[in-house]
C-alpha cells in the first residue's frame, strides 16, 4: 500500500531523516570516544565504551532517533519542535559527559574545574538515566508533533462560517 505524499511508503522522504539520524548518532559516539581518548588514550576509550555500552547505546540511539524525527518533521514544514529537541539534546550531551567525567579528573584540575569532574563522576549513573529518559521524552514529543502535523494535513479545509 502506498501512502502518496506522506513518506509512509519509504523511499526518498525517509532516506534524509535516516541519514541525518545516523550521522548524529555517529557524531555523538565520536564525541564520547574523543573526550576519553584525550584524557586517557584510545585503548582506554574503547575499553570504557565496552563497559558503558548499554547506557551509551541507549543515549546514542535515542539521540539519532530524535534527530531523524526532527529532520522528518522539518520536512513537513513544522518548526515548533526545535525547543524540545534542543532541551533533550543538551541532556544527552550532559549524560555522555557524565559517562566519561571520571576520566577528566586528570585534566580538569589543570583548568580549575576539579569540582565539576567530581560531581559528574559521583552522579554518573543517575545522569545517564536522566539522559535516557529525556531522549524518550523527546522522541514521544516529536512523534506527537508528527502525528498532529499529519492529521492537520489530512483534514479538509473547513469553510468559514458566515452569517448566512
Write the layout of secondary structure elements.
Layout: H1 12-40, H2 42-75, H3 82-99, H4 101-104, H5 114-122, H6 124-154
Helix pairs in contact: 1-2, 2-3, 2-6, 3-6
Keywords: Membrane, Transmembrane, Transmembrane helix
Transmembrane segments: 18-42, 54-73, 94-120, 126-144
Biggest β-sheet: count, sense, barrel?
Answer: none
Q: Globular, elongated, flat, extended or rod-shaped: what is the shape?
A: elongated
Computed Rg: 20 Å
Strands, count: 0
| Low-confidence blocks of residues | 1-8
Measured as a percent range, the helix fraction is over 70%
Mean pLDDT equals 74
- Global structural class: mainly alpha
Count the domains. Answer: 1
Distance between the termini: 42 Å
- Total count of helical runs of at least 4 residues: 6
Beta-strand residue percentage: under 5%
The ordered H/E elements are: HHHHHH
